[in-house]
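Researcher: We're teaching a course module on how sequence relates to structure. For the next exercise, students receive a sequence and then see the predicted structure as tokens, so they can try to spot secondary structure elements on their own. Here is the exercise chain.
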Amino acid sequence: SDTIDISSESGFKTIQEYEDSQANLPAVKKDNWIENWSTKQEIRLVDKFKTDSAGAIAGVQKEFVKSLPSLMFISLPFLAFLLQLIYVRRKSISYVDHLLFLLHFYIFSFIISFFFVTALMLTSYDWLGWMGWVATALMVWVNLYPLLAMRNFYNHSWGGVILRYFVFVIGAFLIFFFLFIIYLIISLLRV
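Model: And here is the predicted structure for the students to work with:
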């Protein structure tokens, strides 16, 4: 069956049961608006996952995929700030320059992603199996390109660029990880 045996941490089975319980409490013991909202969300999610766990999971996935473009957009100022920290000694490069560099890279990444997905889809045809190699080359290129772009844009030696590139990649991973968790929670609450 498509059900999961879970229960609400609050102990209430329905929102109505929770609201009735709150109505019987004196004003000082009632939950504040945050507790009220979160308890209702918890009851609603537990109910949704109990009755249709596969549908609820699919709903979370759909909401998350719909929010990916905004996740990418929201990440821009954080990544630009990260570059600002990495290049703090370069007074001639402003925060806006970092934003423009990242916009350039994002556009490049989206174009390469389009060709990557197309190449992967074409590998399903026997006579186009070699497109797997094209997809691999595109993935290598999309990972090498920022290194080359950073060297060109920031005008550093290879040693300096490689070090800064790895610091940027680690920082970007952490930024995307936290944004991913936030967006996953938001997607869970939207189901």
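Model: If you want an answer key for the exercise: The radius of gyration is 24 Å. Residues 1-5 have pLDDT under 50 and may be disordered.
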